[in-house]
């Protein structure tokens, strides 16, 4: 706990840690909706966890009595596959929440494993504290439920995307989703091409080959490893037998969007 068992001379350090946590709460799309006066249970019962690269924060199947707010560094959410490989669902960074939705299960277990990709630190927030503030602030509970409903809608979109017939269509649908979210032709990929390939359930080689083909056809351009430009969205969709993107006003409703990334499975995001 941040405010208990403080050794002599550590008060200043603890105050700094609490101040950083308070700032992160203010920046959180979800927790910032909780009035500051009602956040004290979360802060009082928080602790800071330091992780080295490749160290696990938790494993799939562990009892879930805590959710987390990333302070620094990056973490991967993944599941082990039957083949022995890891299926990466998402890479998270500073300001992101982990597994807060799981806290509302009767006997919660972590549905994924979380492992630091770099040296990282996270605030560990207790399930009991979250339930306490939800009971005390019904308006916040409704906001949280709204965000969870949006997450379910986004999950349906992801299932639809990932069951699309071939790799080329999945890739174009993914690019069109980024196109509609970022609302500009120049797109910034949310992860490396290797990560994007794994999220789309295709090999990095297939991803590179498809992008190269689109570039040769004059449909996209690239700049560096994480930026590309859509030069002709209609023709790009037609190339893989998809209808053109619907970009008219009003199309950007929450239920049509996939969220911050393809795999927000255990996280709630709503701007």
Q: How many β-strands, per DSSP?
A: 11
Largest β sheet strand count, sense and barrel closure: 4 strands, antiparallel
**CATH architecture classification name of the largest domain:** Sandwich
Strand content: 15-25%
Give the structural class: alpha+beta
Task: Find the CATH superfamily of the largest domain.
Answer: Jelly Rolls
Multimerization status: single chain
Which stretches are low in confidence, meaning pLDDT under 50 for 5 or more residues running? Answer: 3-7, 249-271
Mean pLDDT reading: 81
The best one-word shape is: elongated
- Helix residue percentage: 25-40%
**Could you say what the CATH topology of the largest domain is called?**
Jelly Rolls
* Computed Rg: 20 Å
Strand order of the largest sheet: 1-8-3-6
The CA-CA distance between the termini, in Å, is: 30 Å
CATH class of the largest domain: Mainly Beta
Instruction: Determine the number of helices (DSSP H or I, runs of at least 4 residues).
Output: 8
- What is the domain total for the residues? 2
Name the helix and strand elements from N-terminus to C-terminus, one letter apiece: HHEEEEEEEEHHHEHHEEH
Task: Describe the protein's architecture and organization.
The chain is an alpha+beta fold and 271 residues long. It has 2 domains: 11-136, Jelly Rolls (Sandwich), CATH 2.60.120; 153-256, Arc Repressor Mutant, subunit A (Orthogonal Bundle). It is 37% helix and 19% strand. It is built from 8 helices and 11 strands. It has helices at residues 11-27, 40-44, 127-136, 138-162, 167-182, 193-199, 204-216, 233-239, and strands at 47-51, 56-58, 66-72, 75-80, 86-92, 97-98, 113-116, 120-126, 186-188, 220-223, 227-230. A 4-stranded antiparallel beta sheet has the order 1-8-3-6. The longest helix is centred in the middle third of the chain and has 25 residues, at 138-162. The two termini are 30 Å apart.
């Amino acid at each position: 706990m941040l405010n208990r068992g403080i050794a002599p001379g550590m008060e200043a350090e603890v105050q700094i840690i609490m101040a950083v946590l308070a700032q992160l709460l203010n920046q959180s799309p979800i927790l910032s909706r909780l009035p500051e006066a009602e956040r004290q249970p979360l802060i009082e019962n928080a602790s800071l966890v330091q992780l080295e690269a490749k160290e696990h924060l938790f494993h799939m199947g562990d009892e879930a009595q805590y959710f987390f707010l990333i302070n620094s560094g990056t973490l991967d959410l993944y599941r082990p596959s039957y083949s022995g490989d890891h299926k990466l669902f998402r890479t998270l960074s500073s300001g992101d929440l982990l597994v807060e939705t799981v806290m509302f299960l009767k006997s919660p277990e972590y549905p994924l494993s979380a492992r630091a990709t770099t040296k990282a630190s996270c605030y560990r927030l207790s399930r009991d504290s979250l339930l306490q503030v939800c009971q005390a602030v019904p308006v916040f509970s409704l906001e949280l439920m709204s965000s969870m409903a949006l997450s379910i809608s986004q999950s349906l979109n992801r299932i639809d995307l990932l069951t699309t017939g071939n790799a080329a269509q999945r890739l174009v649908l993914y690019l069109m989703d980024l196109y509609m979210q970022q609302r500009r032709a120049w797109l910034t990929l949310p992860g490396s091409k290797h990560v994007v390939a794994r999220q789309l359930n295709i090999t990095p080689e297939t991803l590179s080959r498809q992008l190269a083909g689109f570039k040769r056809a004059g449909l996209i351009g690239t700049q560096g490893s994480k930026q590309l430009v859509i030069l002709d969205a209609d023709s790009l969709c037609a190339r893989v037998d998809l209808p053109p993107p619907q970009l008219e006003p009003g199309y950007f409703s929450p239920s049509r969007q996939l969220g911050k990334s393809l795999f927000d499975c255990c996280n709630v995001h709503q701007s």
